[in-house]
Amino acid sequence: MRKTAFLFPGQGAQYVEMGKDFYYAYSISRQTFEEASENLGIDISNICFNGPDEDLLKTENTQPAILTTSIAILRAIQKEGFSCDYTAGLSLGEYSALVNAEAIEFSDAVRVVRNRGIYMQQAVPYGLGKMGAIVGLDRDKIMELIEETRKDGLIEVANYNTPEQVVLSGEAKAIKNAVRKAKQWGAKKALLLPVSAPFHCSLLKPAAEMLQVDLESINYKDPKIPLINN
User: 3-state SS of the chain: helix, strand, coil percent to 5?
Assistant: First the structure.
């Protein structure tokens, strides 16, 4: 028997006008945006639909924007009769998966991810950190690349997404040089990611410590569907 999984995206998936079609097509999606705006005290639909890119890219906006859009779409397709057997999310997307599994409330999730973004940007001010995706270099070559660029600042592996795709995170100069060198070394693709902070690296340890307080303040339930952690 075939099984269905709902997968939710993380940061980098954002774009101006995301969710706008669902907002106008489904009342449940519109209510989701309104619920988020009420909980956050900001007009999240305006940020999603009108940007500008510079505002949407700020992680304190990106995170609740992606979460809200994800749940707005989820609720619309559930209204159409679709459901899933499993759920998962990449990084930030795991909060959406937790909401989908009814392990946490959407109102709690959107508040927590807004604070998560604020803490992350406080830990590494805008412009000082970067992330880069490298495709087509093996793991040994990636480690050699890190050693070559470590003199330019902190640089670490953030994600092993596939055997061929690795994401690096750290200080801006080191990441930019790593992306440049990866192209010279024959990577199939090497690019900077459209994010405002260096996620999944040790520079964000202060943010994790602050976030722990928020996470301890919300109620958790057993997931109603299996949730695969990343």
Answer: 50, 15, 35
Residue linked to tokens 């709902």: 6
Whether 96 is a known active-site residue: answer no
pLDDT tens series, the chain, 230 aa: 799 999 999 999 999 999 999 999 999 999 999 999 999 999 999 999 999 999 999 999 999 999 999 999 999 999 999 999 999 999 999 999 999 999 999 999 999 999 999 999 999 999 999 999 999 999 999 999 999 999 999 999 999 999 999 999 999 999 999 999 999 999 999 999 999 999 999 999 999 999 999 999 999 999 999 999 98
Please return the burial class of 162, using the count of CB atoms within 10 Å of its CB with bins 0-12, 13-18 and 19+: exposed
Quote the domain boundaries for residue 152. 129-195
Of 91, 96, 169, 196, the active-site residue reads 91
Say whether 200 is catalytic.
Answer: yes
- Does 148 lie in the same domain as 104? no
Residues 17, 100 within the same domain: yes
Other Cβ atoms closer than 10 A to 45: 22
Contact 96, 89 (CB under 8 A): yes
Spatial CA neighbour of 104 closest among 71, 151, 146, 57: 71
